[in-house]
Amino acid sequence: MTDYVYDQLDDAYRRWEEYPENILRQSRPERVLKGYRKRLKDESGRLFKESQPQLVFWEAWRAEGKFQLKAIRAPKILDDHLYPDTKDPGCRHVFIEANNSRAPLNCSLRMLQSLFTFQQVEPSFLDYLHTFGDQEEPIDACLCHFQSDDSLGSSALAIPTLGRSGSSMRLSYLLRAPEHVPEAEWKWSIRQAAVYLSFDIKTGRTLWITIKGNNLLREHICEEAPNLEPSPSRSSGSDDKNGGDINDAFEATLKTHLVYFRWCEENWRWLVRDVEDAVRRISTKAKTAPIGRVPHFEPFRPEQQHSQQWALYSRRHQFTQPSVNDAFNLDPGNQPSQAERFLPPQKQSTMSSVLSLLKREPPSLSSENSPPNKMKAKPPGKMLVLEMFNLSDLQKLNVIAERVEEAILTIKLDVGVIQDCRAYYGSMPCSNLAPGPDSFAQRTGTFFRQLQYLVRSLETRQTQLESLLRRLDEGKKLLESILQYRNLQVSQIFAEKAQMSAKNTELIAANETSSMHIITVVTLVFLPGTFVSTFFGSGVLQWNDGISIDSTWQFRGDAFALFVEVCVPLMVGIALIWLLVHWNIERKARLELQEAIRMKESHVP
């Protein structure tokens, strides 16, 4: 019977491309297995890096008790490694890694299906696999999960040739934790890790499969090697030549769980501190800005003569202006004035001139011999203080709020995974393990206390983040109020400028009216003389000698008739042209009014 099961496994391994439909113990309907296989094939281009694949094996044989690291880079080498004509190692770790958290896995589809077929990995573990691979944005954001599928007490699929009893506990989980990314704008990235465990409760053989976007967890596991190495066989008469103390193997399994769970907890403290610092940079500026009150100023220094950077009112009554762009290390670049952001383009030039007047330094009133330290700087105007606030600050607060909400959800789900793991081991009867010098309760009791500490630590970080989220909401409300107040101040500036323009226009109109009055008076004074000179110069009246006005003169009727014939028709023509233009303008106005009335009546129901 056992040889038959081994032959079945060998046949399934030859049909590796059918995984997961080729697993021997099928606990899922056939349609579900086909769906897993189809999705795995459809997303293989995103999930796997077919060129230069690599699987990292970290194995320990109980006869030796030492772990050995081996990288396998070809399917043929994988086949030879999995079938060495001997039993499985006492503990086997397989690491599937990638260049980064959003890059394809450094593994080919063929190697993954071959490995999962030989180890008979549960198909449900593929759900976690799909959270990896090439992706622009995180897939299944904040997803964390725990699941188990045991075959305790069953020996139907026992393969003594490989040292497998067929009775094993199998579980898997997906965890997420923050990792420091120095080169990014936001220094923290929440990354996932998928873990699969198969523990043979009769032989103590352990299989771990870890999928991670880097080699961080592999380094953590290797650092714990002295605590995880299986003990050599204690019984020379054992039917398993690589057998050892099962309870020690079980304890090493619990310690390995703690390595993964500690990875979930270790960086949250530092993320919380960075978030708190980012919130403080913006909220403190909003809370301490000298809006509506006269601030205190340090004595004027010569090097501050042309400076326009005004500091904030600190607790020491000094101005220290925190950097606006330090919250997420964002550089806004060359941007228009902050007050101009709220104005239409055609008014920005006007706003620039207004702000330049507001920010202009007053001329020095001190004498040249006065010492510099006696001079006082002019306090910044209200608009200059308000100009330190802009929409980018509000956007940063929104980004921080999204990060905090994501972190809170991730912590909650991680806590759920840890608690599910504790419940799983707590419900396991100790009779499933071989008797040993230490009781099952003692081994699991230490493990449970460690889990409780991790859960308490994560809940503390969650409470801190929830408090920061409330502070963020208050900061956003305060910043929105300041921005609205700044809009009112900008509107007031334009209203005052419009009033000044109206007064200037009125003054100009008055000056122009006075000028027209002067022109009218001058015209009236000189108009009779102009008419007389024009009439006498037209040749209607003619003196006989042409020299003296005392000489006899005569009226020339023919010349006067010619004068009338030219002037009168010209005046009448100009008057008719003006009347025609005026009538045409009024006609167009009437037509437009009638059309508007008609359109309005047509829309009335």
Name the descriptors.
seven-stranded mixed β-sheet, 9 strands, two-stranded antiparallel ribbon, 605 residues, alpha+beta, Beta Polymerase, domain 2, 3 domains, 15 helices, 10% strand, single chain
CATH architecture descriptor text of the largest domain: 2-Layer Sandwich
Rg value: 45 Å
The overall strand count is: 9
CATH superfamily heading of the largest domain:
CorA soluble domain-like
Overall 3D shape: elongated
How many domains would you count in the coordinates?
A: 3
Q: Hey, roughly how much beta strand do the residues contain? A: 5-15%
Q: What structural category do the secondary elements indicate?
A: alpha+beta
- Low-confidence spans: pLDDT under 50, at least 5 residues? 234-244, 294-379
Q: On the 0-100 scale, what is the average pLDDT?
A: 79
CATH class of the largest domain: Alpha Beta
**N-to-C CA distance:** 89 Å
- Give the helices and strands as they follow along the chain: HHHEEHEHHEEEEHHHHHHHHEEH
Largest sheet: 7 strands, mixed
What's the number of helices?
A: 15
Quick overview of this protein structure:
With 605 residues, this protein is α+β, with helices and mostly antiparallel strands. It contains 15 helices and 9 strands.
Explain the overall architecture.
The two termini are 89 Å apart. This protein is 51% helix and 10% strand. The strands form two sheets. A seven-stranded mixed beta sheet has the order 2-1-3-7-6-5-4, with helices on both faces. A two-stranded antiparallel sheet has the order 8-9. The chain has 15 helices and nine strands. Helix 4 runs parallel beside helix 5, helix 10 packs antiparallel against helix 13 and helix 13 runs antiparallel to helix 14. About 16% of the residues have low confidence. The longest helix is centred in the C-terminal third of the chain and has 97 residues. By secondary structure, it is an alpha+beta fold. The protein has three domains: 263 residues, Beta Polymerase, domain 2; 190 residues; 69 residues.
